[in-house]
Amino acid sequence: MSKERARRRAEREAEQERARAARARRVARRERRRSLVRRLTPSLRRGRTGRLRRHTRRERATILVLTAVAVVGIWSLVDDLALRLVLVALLLLVLPAIVVIALDRR
After folding, report:
1. Torsions phi, psi of 104, nearest 5?
2. Which end of the chain is more exposed for a tag (fewer CB within 10 A), N or C?
3. Using alpha carbons only, what angle is made at residue 97 by residues 89 and 67, rounded to the nearest 5 degrees?
């Protein structure tokens, strides 16, 4: 009887060892896959990202208000319609350079 119990216990332990090894292989494979995905996935920059986040809300509002004032000034001071449109287009093209020169913090 004790030989039978020992044999069954040995079979149980062997089965548990096989299950443990299979689980260890699955866990190792999962970890390798996760590390590969982590390496290949671009990391997200936290905090201030994007073009609009470069300036504070007050600075963006100031840029908008001054641009609107300039456009209203162009429309009220210039008589020729073609010249108005050219000046507004020129203002909008030059505006990013003006903002960088005026507000750049580098």
Report:
1. -70, 135
2. C
3. 50
Angle at CA of residue 36, ends 31 and 42, nearest 5°: 130
Residue 91 makes CB contacts below 8 A (sequence gap 6+) with: 67, 70, 71, 74
What are the C-alpha distances in Å from 16 to residues 10, 40, 57, 87? 10, 36, 63, 81
CA atoms within 13 A on the CB side of 33: 6
Q: What is the pLDDT of residues 17-62, one digit of tens each?
A: 999 999 999 999 999 999 988 888 887 666 555 655 667 888 889 9
Cα–Cα dist 77/98, whole Å: 22
pTM higher than 0.70, yes or no? no
- Residue 71 near residue 63 (C-beta atoms within 8 A): no
